[in-house]
Specification:
31% of the residues lie in helices and 26% in strands. By secondary structure, the chain is an alpha+beta fold. The chain has one domain (17-110): Alpha-Beta Plaits (2-Layer Sandwich).
């Protein structure tokens, strides 16, 4: 298996990066959190689509009390754009906190391998 690693041990920039943002909430508030998760897509989707390097983006909300945003980026530098996107760090964060969502630290994962199923 081919592994792209720089001299300092960091993955090479040619390796896609998986960005994971996880949050938790009281499952009793699922209906309002899920509605908020749908609503923020109205302004997040157009803003995120403008960013270079995006490969895939998924947002999901579980009735068990957690929500997740998982995105795939061509480089870590491009994944870092999300940490500066006003629609995410101000607007969506405020909307989520209003319904009791508590965020965990965001993690960027350099990929080790992948499977792509032709459609």
């Amino acid at each position: 298996m081919e592994n792209h690693v720089l001299q300092d041990g960091a993955p090479a920039s040619s390796s896609p990066v998986v960005r994971v943002s996880l949050a938790n909430f009281d499952p009793a508030r699922f209906t309002e959190v899920n509605q908020m998760a749908e609503d923020i897509g109205e302004y997040l989707i157009p803003a995120i689509k403008k960013l270079p390097g995006l490969i895939h983006y998924y947002a999901a909300c579980s009735p068990k009390g957690s929500m997740i945003h998982v995105s795939i980026w061509d480089t870590d530098e491009h994944a870092q754009q999300m940490s500066h996107l006003k629609e995410m760090i101000v607007d969506a964060k405020n909307d989520a906190e209003k319904v009791g969502v508590v965020f965990t630290p965001i993690v960027h994962y350099p990929t080790n391998w992948k499977i792509i199923i032709p459609q």
